[in-house]
């Protein structure tokens, strides 16, 4: 890799355990684990501007019971793709960014209310997607004389 190009790779290991109790079901426990990869590439155009692209997978355990009470909703899984441009002026005192991303998710919880029950149940929704853009300009507070 050349100096203005930075490659970022990583992973997160999730080991999740949960235990619940409800009057209708009693004690119940679940455990889930997964390795979630991440990768990104940043190219510094100059001292102010850079462009980037990244990819990550999504794994988020859920504690919602399936509608009907037979087990739990599988973990929320998916993928996130993002690309954008960033700028930093005055040694990072003022920052700006513009990004676009695509989010793809499976097992999104669609909450089902049961009148008179304290148990939250859900049905899984697959192929949920979202395309978004975001722009941001921020500055840091700086006091003169410090």
Concise description?
With 146 residues, the chain is an all-beta fold.
Q: Which percent range describes the beta-strand content? A: over 45%
Q: Low-confidence spans: pLDDT under 50, at least 5 residues? A: none
Strands of the biggest beta sheet: in what spatial order? 1-2-3-5-6-9
Number of E strands? 9
Structural class: mainly beta
Rounded mean pLDDT score: 83
Amino- and carboxy-terminal Cα gap:
39 Å
Tell me the radius of gyration.
21 Å
Q: How many domains make up the 3D coordinates? A: 1
Secondary-structure element order, N to C: EEEEEEEEE
What would you say this structure looks like, in words?
The chain is mainly beta and 146 residues long. The protein has one domain. 0% of the residues lie in helices and 68% in strands. It contains no helices and nine strands. It has strands spanning 5-22, 26-44, 49-60, 65-66, 76-89, 94-106, 108-112, 121-125, 128-139. It has a six-stranded antiparallel β-sheet with strand order 1-2-3-5-6-9, with no helix packed on it. A hairpin with a 4-residue loop joins strand 5 (76-89) and strand 6 (94-106). It is elongated, with a radius of gyration of 21 Å. The mean pLDDT is 83.
């Amino acid at each position: 890799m050349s100096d203005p190009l930075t490659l970022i790779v990583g992973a997160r290991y999730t080991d999740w355990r949960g235990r619940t109790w409800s009057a209708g079901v009693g004690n119940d426990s679940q455990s889930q684990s997964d390795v979630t990869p991440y990768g990104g590439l940043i190219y510094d155009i100059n001292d102010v501007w850079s462009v980037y692209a990244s990819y990550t997978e999504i794994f988020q355990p859920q504690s919602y019971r399936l509608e009907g009470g037979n087990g739990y909703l599988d973990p929320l899984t998916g993928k996130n793709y993002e690309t954008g441009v960033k700028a930093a002026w005055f040694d990072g005192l003022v920052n700006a960014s513009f990004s676009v991303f695509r989010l793809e998710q499976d097992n999104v919880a669609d909450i089902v209310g049961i009148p008179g029950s304290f148990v939250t149940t859900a049905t899984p929704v697959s192929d949920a997607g979202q395309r978004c853009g975001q722009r941001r300009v921020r500055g840091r507070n700086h006091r003169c004389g410090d």
